[in-house]
Structures
1.
Amino acid sequence: MPAGFLKHPFMSQHAVDACDDSAMVHAMLAFELALAEVQETSGAVPNGVSQQMRSQLESANFNVADIAEGIASGGNVAIPFVKQGRALLADELKRYWHQGATSQDVVDSALMLLLKPRLAALDALLLRCCSAATALMEAHIDTPMVGRTLMQQALPITFGVKVAHWAIGLEQSRRRLSYIELPVQFGGAVGVHSGWDVLGLEWMDALAERLGLAAPVLPWHTDRYPIHALGSALDAVAGAAEKIALDVSLLTQTEVGEVAEPSAPGMGESSSMPHKRNPVRSAMIRAAAKQVHGHTSVLINAAAQPLERGLGEWHAEWAPLIESALLVEGALEQVAVLLEGLEVNPANMWRNLAATGGGIMAEPVARLLTPTLGADRAKAVSAEAAETARLEVRAYADVLADQPEIKGIVDADALRKACDPALYLGSSSAQVIRTKKWLENN
């Protein structure tokens, strides 16, 4: 598969490099060496053995290609890795290598080690995105724009409150991800530390501390809550990023033109149409998010696993889990640049507010006219005047002022105010202030 063309562009390139085959080998080795160290501390391994192992294996060259080839016969990467590691050790050390562990202990713990720095990177990116969103929403706290429901013009809002919702989505998903624990895995063949009795649980806790991972209550070979929780939390971040990209892409349409993605040489160009400036960042974010949603489905459907070891379910988790993290990180890198450099066009927002000839203000006008005309007639008059304003390209307030049922009866100043979108923004500005306080307090 041409991964460099079809998969990696949607991921964080730094994260891709940090999670390659060699990194997985390094993470598995870290688990095995830490296991030897905690066993030595308890007296199950002679003094000095763990350091000898470290000296011999940290400088050894593991053959990644051979390990990959060996997966086909064993079903997971730990089996050929353990074999190769044992072969690289001096004869007197071989018996202490991988003692009391099983393949799933190695793979699950290694995956947690790979993901730990990725979660830290995601938290930093989310904070960066939230900061950029906060600056945007404050700058446009009073910038009126069209609020749209079912893709149609509805009532005025501010651009600031739209961004506030983006910021809340980012922060909520950040907080959810921050609660995720990455537990060590250590249970042995059937999850009960066979042959080691209570030492097994002691080793499990000591391993967690040494590796900087969480200590689970019990080994979680077929209790996949940690994976389910992490996968769904990553999906929540992807959803928050996708919401921003979807809104931005709709607002960048030529006929709308209310925002534009940050410009850069060659960014958004078409292979055949020189005039185009495509919302490429939004497309990249949405493409990454769609893939994460698919991966999440795999992880959720693998949550129930049989007996003491999954048969295909566990194996199915590996790629979707790592790829989800890499895709989310890639998406957030794009979101950060997008929000930090988003071009906002208030003039086009005002233009679009007037696109219906003032009809977007028909609701407040109807409310003003109801005490005089009654609800049904007020609604009809406000709608008819909006259509006339659109067809004759006249100001909505002027058309209303000429209506015989209104002229001289309804206060002209009140009528003109009812037609002003900037005076019908509801709690938009208050919501921005409320959001800013919430972000600052969390």
2.
Amino acid sequence: MTSDDQELTLRVVPAPGDINTNGHIFGGWVLSQMDIAGGLIASREAAGAVATVAIETMTFIAPILLRDVISIYAQVVRRGRTSVAVNLEVFAARGGEERVKVTQGIFTYVALDENHRPRPLPPI
């Protein structure tokens, strides 16, 4: 289960073109969805544009299947001077009530100024 501090950030359904030859969804697809979700949270925290600078950890726990409904939950876990780290957990809803944790990772984003250079985060 997710922590009470996590926020449902993105819900999406993979398309048939996102499937690999094993019948699972490409890892790169879920990684990109996580980056979008984390970027939404980081952008809000930074009060402006951000760029992904690192994926500190990434764990594929279970495959994502065609017709799964993917929910991505996010939580800020660390703030630096110019960067913010976001923990992302991905759950797949399968059929009725089955809910499976499929992926987890920590993505780090840096706040950007108008010249696309790092800038300080606003105060909390």
